Amino acid sequence: MIKGGGSMDPLIPFEPISASHIPVEGDWAFQVKWDGVRILVYKSGAETEVINRHLNNRTLQYPELVETKSYSKEDSFILDGEVIALVNGKPSFHEVMKRDRLRGKEAIELMRDEVPIIYMVFDCLYMNGLSLMDKPLHERQQMLRSIIKETEHIRITENFDEGDGLLRAVKEQGLEGIVCKDLNSCYLPGGKDPRWQKIKNYLDVIAVVCGFIKQGTRIRSLLLGLYGEDNKLYYIGKAGRGRYSDKEWQTIQEYLERAEQPNSPYDHPHKEARDCQWLSPIYTVKIQFLEWTASKTLRQPVLDSFVERKPLECRFEKGER
Length: 321
Fold this sequence. Notes:
Layout: E1 15-18, E2 28-33, E3 37-44, E4 47-52, H1 63-66, E5 76-84, E6 86-87, E7 90-91, H2 93-100, H3 105-114, E8 118-127, E9 130-131, H4 137-147, E10 154-156, H5 163-173, E11 177-182, E12 192-200, E13 203-215, E14 218-227, E15 233-239, H6 246-258, E16 277-278, E17 284-289, E18 291-292, E19 298-299, E20 302-307
Parallel strand pairs: 1-12, 8-10
Antiparallel strand pairs: 2-11, 3-4, 3-5, 5-8, 6-7, 8-9, 11-12, 13-14, 13-16, 13-17, 14-15, 17-20, 18-19
GO biological process, one term: DNA recombination
InterPro entries: ATP-dep_DNA_ligase, DNA_ligase_ATP-dep_C, DNA_ligase_ATP-dep_cent, DNA_ligase_ATP-dep_CS, NA-bd_OB-fold
Protein name: DNA ligase (ATP)
């Protein structure tokens, strides 16, 4: 939260739980679930910081969000939302990661035009010296609409009253899913409970890259893994290069080859063992997939993007293994 003197302590955002059915009892708002990067914007006087859900600073990566005068006249606030990048009118996690993983200021300035971003803001947690987190969601949303002016890069996420219809539309358009939010819910930093629920059109997981298989001199596919409750690394499948171009994939291969090791990082042997090159389990990727098989591997996995995540955080859900 914003403290006196303009300094800020970032907070871990409130998260929705996974659900399979739209809630029917209570007062709910339904929103599109954007396939992007969860971002909180902290403004205190002349100082603005942009922080992701893992408390990593992204102020340099998204200068559009630092230019707060373009979308709000308020002196201090904390906003919660999702940064997205569009491809053919649809959010692309792969595309927004081109911005998120950049570190050099010059490279980011060049990429602003190549990969324009939109901040889909959906909550206001703090404003002008007052925390709003103990207020019900409908009041926070009202405050949000009163202080934010929509621009080319700033949009307020729309509420829908009818969840079934929104979910059908999301599936028809191939979007990630929907989020169901109790309009009377307060905001619990670091919390995750049924007051916010997500229903996904497709599944995804952050996995560890444990090795690769080559075709000739080029990497054909990555071997993936997750940690179990026993802190052992289990094989969950393999995926090709996904949306990466030849040039991007060549750069990725150069990094992966630096992490080669002679022994398998898995705790159990599997059928790929004779054909692959093992890697130190330091790289992580976001994978989209259709479903889990009975043997706890991914059906139809597709590589979305490399991401920054601590490998030991890449785990099966509790009780899955």
